[in-house]
Design brief:
38% of the residues lie in helices and 14% in strands. The chain has 7 helices and 5 strands.
Length: 206
């Protein structure tokens, strides 16, 4: 699929388009991370695609390309505890708004991967946007790589949970570790069914 969806919007009024996406929405632990990216109108890169379609090595390479070529980029995160308070959709939307607000460049339009938000600017929430628009795909890569790096740091703090292997997703390995050691307050999302169903006393976050 061609990643040129945003090209139809460029005009005398729309010169800069901000793409926005999140990573970690389905994870059982850690923050949800949003990325926002403004690319040059004529930017092309065969490596950039929906982050889920790329290998980890490809994502890391694409991450560096985006950092070097984007007009502006930013990431933001909302914690597991806040996800429990406001729900994951609202947390994802909040992280996106935070990332957009951190961009140090003007933008005239916002495109997101299916998440709607209130804005005075021209806006479209595109279903499967990370597979259609280059700026959304780039944002998905920035969010995913940033979140992976967070998971590697969490793995150092909590090696028993093997976070580097599952990145917080509800894999068989992760569920086994979760049942064995119990969910950690401040790290796990207690509103998520696999965590909530364990009914285990919360462990303090050190």
């Amino acid at each position: 699929m061609s990643l040129d969806y945003e090209q139809q919007y460029y005009s005398k009024d729309i010169k800069y388009i901000a793409g926005c996406d999140e990573a970690g929405r389905g994870c059982l632990l850690g923050p949800v991370v949003a990325g926002a990216v403004i690319l040059p109108k004529d930017f092309k890169c065969d490596l950039i695609n929906d982050s889920k379609q790329l290998s980890e090595k490809q994502r890391e390479e694409a991450y560096q390309i985006i950092k070097e070529n984007a007009l502006a980029w930013a990431v933001a995160e909302v914690s597991a505890e806040e996800i429990d308070q406001i729900n994951i959709l609202n947390a994802s939307r909040k992280a996106m708004v935070m990332a957009l607000n951190k961009l140090n460049h003007r933008y005239d339009m916002i495109l997101t991967d299916a998440v709607k938000m209130q804005t005075d600017l021209p806006f479209e929430a595109i279903i499967h946007g990370d597979a259609k628009a280059m700026c959304i795909a780039a944002a998905s890569i920035m969010a995913k790589v940033t979140r992976d790096h967070i998971c590697y740091e969490l793995d150092k703090l909590y090696p028993d949970y093997k976070i580097a292997k599952h990145k917080g997703y509800g894999t068989k390995l992760h569920l086994e570790m979760l049942k064995k050691y119990g969910p950690i307050k401040g790290l796990y999302r207690f509103s998520y069914a696999p965590v909530r169903s364990l009914n285990i006393e919360k462990i303090k976050l050190f």
